[in-house]
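Quick check before the chapter quiz. The format below is the same one you will see on the exam, so make sure you can read both the input and the output lines.
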Amino acid sequence: MSTKPRLLTGDTPTGRLHLGHYVGSLENRVNMQDDYECFFIIANAHAFTTRKDRPAEVRQSVIDITKDFLAAGIDPKRSHIFVQSEIPAIAELTFFFSMLVPYARVMRNPTIKDEIRDKQLGSEYPFGFLLYPVGQVADILCVRPHVVPVGEDQVPHLEMAREVARRFNQLYCGVDSHLADEEHLANGGLLPVIEPKLGRVKRLVGTGGPGENGQLLKMSKSLNNSILLSDSADDIKKKVMGMYTDPNRLKATDPGTIENNPLWIFHDTFNPDTQWVEETKALYRNGEIGDVACKKKLIEVLDALIAPMRERRKEIDDDSEVLKILQQGTDATNAAAEETLLLVKQAMKQDYFKRTISLSELA
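Here is the expected output.
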């Protein structure tokens, strides 16, 4: 294992990754590989909270997301990509950590409430849906990372992981409750109180228009308003040309609005030519340039970003090679997670026997 500080983050396999994932977290992951020992989880067990009837779809998404990671620049020689369900320590840690989180605290998690509403689950969601925030705490803490790159919507889950680490260190390691988070490990604590690392864009909007409340909707595969990291040049062109802009554009009183306009949010986010962006915004505001010209420029910008990913993806089309990469990453993660579980059990005085976890290919 490396002596570098550790980093952990990942995704639930519910489909291929899009530009919102890229600026929210994936871009940071790629750039931080040299400075951290990186663990990237593909949380397939969590996918069953809303896709229990689609196991084949979940399995395919595990492969697709791994390819997205690799195409984006995650290097399996420097980082560990692993499958959540193949790390037994995570399930055990979830059980232990669940004793440290009151039910009311789980229900105060805004992400839980948002997902129940957005996915129209009503009261029909499984118990596992409520358990998954605690499971996510175990996902994070199983390798005892120092930093977790995430999008803004995942910050509430990270706060729960911070609370569990504090509570565990105080209850089982004798850490003084008045100590600052960064002092826990130096004073006998086992679990780091992790730090989030937000992407440069907290919440990327989708290509579509506003929702019922008038606010632009977040980019999401389920809303059909996303540009995928695996999209072809034609896909990008079609999606950008159909992008929502300003419905009042070119009226005498409002020749062109920049604010809350996805076209310009995307240029601000992805176009490296800031001089062009600022000069063209002025023209747009005055009605001196149309949507089509600005969209054509955005198509060039996005294809320049995604084209290298498409090329790298072609080189990793063999699913068996992807599985070998996942096995290697999962083996390395099991070593780290088993160590964490043993130390947790020792702190809780529940260490009775030693065990070793190893993986082998299915016959």
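If your answer matched, good. The first strand starts at residue 6 and ends at 11.
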